[in-house]
Amino acid sequence: MRRPALAILSLVVAGAVAVTGCAGPAGPAASGDYSVTVTTPDDGEVVLTAAPARVGALNGNRVIPFVQPFLDEGHVLVGYGNEADPEKYPWIQAELEAFTAVDDSDGPNVEEYAAWDADLLIANGNVGDFWEPAREAGPLVQLPETDWRATTTLLGEIFQKPDVAEDVIATTEATIADARLAEPVTAAVLWPYQENGTVGTQVLGAELPNFLGDLNITVAGSDTAVDGYEDVSLELLAERLAGVDHVIVLSSGDDLQQRFLDNPVVADIPVIASGHVTRFTDVQTGAGFPVTPMTVPVLIDALSGVLKP
User: According to the UniProt entry, where is the signal peptide (predicted)?
Assistant: First the structure.
């Protein structure tokens, strides 16, 4: 069953993580006065003592969109992991095409990460301590999972570019404000999947629903969801969608979305039968995981059927 790569936010760990003591290459010499302490949900307090002149993105499609505004001739991307189709992420297509992705499908590829000679490794996504082995290759910061504002602010601190962070946040918030609905609507976000020949769906709640809230779209939740996800049988879906104004159906990268909507049980659900359905393409679905300042315009365009009925 296909699931998006979403991480559970961990509790903030008390105490500092001394990343400067990690094994691996030291990278280019940094200015002696660089010392930045940041706090992240997964790492707690992290002390960085090497300026991030060379940056490695451990999962490129999730990290590069956040980092891109901070890159310049003094702060460069040196590689990324987690293979991603550049055409499915057009907002970072050039960056993805500039490197061959490191294969970390079986876990962090520490040897390949170390070859980047990076001053800083940045991760976003995956569960729990998945990225911990990467600390052997250099200093590691795990970005906040579901809050693009906090992530942008954090990177402004790391790159010592708070003005860039403020500009990115202000521009993105203005874009959201222009699109925000005057009156609230309720929506369900569904992700169809197929398992053992049976089509089902997940009702999800995480980073995309958080963003929808900014647009005055309330995502129907569930008291029985686990980590923001819940598998729901087609027979019970009508009950879950009762009272929902709109349904957003994500793409699974094949014809499953269409087959899901064509299923007689699904097609007869009132909100779907009335045509109040927004279908995300592969690219638009990718834009929601994670929601980043670069992908907000893509998502607003995808939601035009909800925002401009």
Answer: 1-18
